[in-house]
Amino acid sequence: MDNVASTFVLAQNKPPDQDPELRQAKRARIDEEDEDEPLISPDLRYIEEFHGEHASTYGTAPTPFELLQEKQNRDGLSMYAPFADKEEWDLSCWLLESVTKTAADKFLKLDITKSRVQPSFGSAHTWMKHIDQLPTGPEWKCVRISADATNVQVVSEEDEDEDDEVFELWMRDPVDAVQELIGNPALKEHIAYAPERVYADAEGKERRFDEMWTADWWWQTQEKIPTGGTVASVILSTDKTQLSQFRGDKVAYPVYLTLGNIAKGIRRQPSKHASILIGYLPVSKLESFDNPSTTAYRLFHFSMRHILRSMADAGRNGVYMTCADGYIRRVFPILAAYIADHPEQCLVACCKQNRCPRCLVGRDERGDLKKSAKRQPNHTLETLGAQQDGLYPPSFLTQGLQEVYAPFWSDLPYSDIFSCISSDILHQLHQGVFKDHLLKWCTKLVRGGGDNFDRRFQAMPIYSGLRHFTKGISHISQWTAGEHKHVQRVFVAALAGSQDDGRVVTAARALLDFITLAQYHSHTTATLERMRTALKIFHRNKSAFIELEARVPDHFNISKLHSLLHYIETIMALGSLDGLNSEHTERLHIDFAKQAYRGTNHKDYVVQMTLWLQRREATALRESYLSWRACMHDNCKPPSEPSLVEEGLSDSDEAPIYSGAPWIAKKSPHPRVSVSALEESYGASGFVDSLTLFLQEEGLLRPGFHPNPHDRFDVYNSTSLYMPPDVHLNPNSLRISVKATAQRSNGTRKAESPARWDTILFETDPVARREKGGLNGKRLQVAELHVVFRLPDHLISPSKDPGPLAYVHLFRKLGALDPETGMYRLVRATRQLMPRALIIPLSKIVRPCHISPRFGQGRVPSSWLKGKSIERAEEFLLNKYIDTAMFEAYNIPLQ
């Protein structure tokens, strides 16, 4: 890579799912930096394009939206047709989303509705006829499947055998689904058609992996398909879900399809409709079969094979499709990833659940840190075929296979099903390794047992966005992904000092490091190496759990623990795992299964669910069309950027683009607060002296005017901070609120709300921090925020207004790291036994931070509970795991 300029090009400093030009253009360029842009850490992306001919276009064609517009114009119809106008369309959407069909019928038949609203439909029946006229997605069809002890096949009602059990498979053509997604004009700015390699440096040493088109699988697959073809990277996910909540055993088994061509930030949003339901698999307990497990495997594979058979032919030969940008391409739908939990992964891989679905690791070797040979589709098919022929090959038993003679993936071209199986953060990391294992092991080792461990969580200081476990964690009856994440954010701090063997905390830290890194939105070669290191450290120290009898039995043959070995290869092949997480599948269940079931009469419900879904898809598609028409009319002018006014935004206002400065409400909720009230209610001792010192040092004292106890100040409850964009952060979670509130009354029926003083990091040397970043006592300092206020007019001249200010209590500067937790130790800074106070401009606040008491080995005092430990404890830890930005800041070495 000597001639770097001809190999890589530098793209804009925007995350991949926020930069449409980066996705659309196949030849990137070096952009000039805007001197007026705020100073932020750039996300440099040096892009290497695919070397061969790819994603060739074969002319243009109107998109579905353009065809619909042309038809409406030709027939003289409104864009809302078959509805009369926008108001009637809005009414229809509201009825569909908010009320049942019966309630809608009653509403439409009310006299006031007929006389005043006067819709063109007078009953639910005629209303549904209007909706059924809307264009919709692929057509549903039902296939009847017969199964006996040896065979599974499609049958007609006339050919059904009374001795066989018959199932219904509801399905849609996956190729039609791919066509709908890749041709949806609403997704035009978020679709990629070709692979690329992305680097974080001009020398090409630091590879970046985030979107699927930046990873290895797409590049390698592009080399295999015919020249000029376009890869449609199909992502499938399956998972059973309970439909009935309080009674009954109604279950659905949906099959979802989406495309890796669509930016993962869009795929994760259900409102973008970037995932399509292509099937409901048969569900049965198979009680009439002697071997229900084997029959379940065969029934699943037969059903999936029947659904995907059109995709097999399209994957070999390609299909000409009109894409969202209006160009015709020869598209090859190829299975790239399969999202499922561990039992489902084994079902797909045709192996038993005590084996790895991706590799041939021995049943008793899953606890070791060693790589095993990968499962090979051809070898697996040969073994299954030999078993079917009665040859009983030894490899059938050594590989832990099930008797499936026609796996659904056997006909899919260019796909290695075992490499397609995605790592699953929700079930493998959160629910599996962390909750089911590490949490249980560590709870056994805490002095005082689970009750004392609960007290540590009860004593945790409050932090914006962090759940406060007022009853501890042992009482959580139903764990969700949110609970797992919140516990993990304070787990190491709670565990520290709980027992003598340092290997326990070391192992826990390493596993939390791995879990945190695995959730990054963008990876580099360096972050993947950190994941490897964390896994090695855990395995070096895991023996402590057995020696201390926390892990019984005395081995680590745990499938979900072994699965961690495959995370790095998954990221390198398919991109970052936030785009392949089964959390998204669980969310889709709400729209495609649970709500659909609630819209039925619960009898013969699957056919009703498909009709319910079809109508909502038609409505969503029309909404996208209307947005497209509005965009065409307005020429898609981007909204103007908000002006950076001093007052900032209220809590209800839209968050601005990152400006590097905190924001407060436009109007003070507590105007003209006296100094005595600040000292009594806000703990602002020595407020006047601190303010005088600040004004003197900044040269802001107005001649003849000095702060005094009779002055009054406008006080604010909080300030909003906008974190600078970072490749590892969720771009939708950059706004953080920091609170400074006094104790307040909630009336006679509720207890008073206690005072809340959040802790923050503020700059002591802005130039050094921006140059070197990270955490360092010479650049950043921790403080407790007590008052956010503005100076009264008589103390300042308009030309020297410092803007909003903050009164804070200081902690001592960051010093040595705690050897047990790897976090900074903190103690309060005092002067003459009083808190050391300081006034700082609000603009110096960098971010909120979370500090945890440095618990000892004894029982947590009762006075520390309910979050009051921040007032009682003497020593604290600067929590490394509170969020990704803080975790990454700890990683930057001191300089």
UniProtKB/TrEMBL annotation:
A Pfam family of this chain: Plavaka
Positions with biased composition (Basic and acidic residues): 16-30
Region (Disordered), start-end ranges: 1-38
Compositional bias per record (Polar residues), positions renumbered to this chain: 1-10
Protein name: Zn-finger domain-containing protein
